[in-house]
Design brief:
This is Histidine phosphatase family protein. The protein is an alpha/beta fold and about 210 residues long. The chain contains 7 helices and 9 strands.
Length: about 210
């Protein structure tokens, strides 16, 4: 990776009611549940990410997650980071679609870069709009946390790990940061081990800022 690359980390937004119901959200702008907000309030970013710049998707589930983790610091919103558009499938349950051979839905690792949901986006479409946002961050030289969405993370993490688009993406867990490096062209590499969010009481005990 070029010497001018920047440390970034990806984190998935906390859950909404549609996450709980296992519905495809895409561009649907669902807020966090009350339970998710309460859980977020108990957590903070681990060092050194507690002083990183924070950029989030404009969808409210990502924005709410970012604002809680920012603890009063500025959050930059970027519409290029929104979730993959699932088109006519948004609001439907993935398992039900998978069980219906006529739906055209397949397991995510079988979709490939050009699989298009009806009236939705392909993985290639997502990367084409996300790449310029990453390039701006990679060229900034400032450690940056991106609060984004599961499908977006799958596509980016495949790239960082050097996996083909048809491969199963690395597992994405809640309340985890996924660090990697990003260069000024928005290319990703050098994924590091995931980092857990820190309980606030533990951070306070270690002397971190409240």
């Amino acid at each position: 990776m070029p010497a001018d690359s920047t440390e970034i980390a990806l984190i998935r937004h906390f859950p909404t009611d549609w996450n709980r119901e296992q519905r495809l959200q895409g561009r649907a702008d669902r807020p966090l549940t009350a339970d998710a907000r309460a859980r977020l309030a108990e957590l903070r970013l681990p060092r050194p990410w507690d002083r990183a710049a924070i950029v989030a998707s404009t969808l409210c589930r990502a924005r709410e997650t970012a604002e809680s983790l920012a603890e009063g610091r500025p959050v930059q919103l970027d519409a290029r980071l929104v979730e993959q558009d699932w088109g006519d499938w948004e609001g439907l349950i993935g398992e039900a679609l998978l069980a219906d051979p006529a739906s055209g839905f397949v397991a995510t690792h079988l979709m490939g870069p050009d699989f298009r949901p009806p009236n939705g986006e392909t993985a290639r479409d997502v990367l084409a709009r996300v790449r310029p946002a990453l390039a701006g961050i990679g060229g900034s030289g400032r450690r940056t946390l991106l609060v984004v969405h599961k499908a977006v993370m799958r596509h980016l993490m495949r790239e960082a790990h050097g996996l083909p688009a048809e491969a199963e993406a690395p597992e994405i867990k809640r309340a985890r940061l996924y660090p990697m490096r990003c260069d000024a062209q928005g290319r990703l590499s050098d994924p590091a081990a995931p980092m857990r969010l820190v309980p606030r009481r533990e951070a306070a005990r270690d002397g971190a800022a409240p």
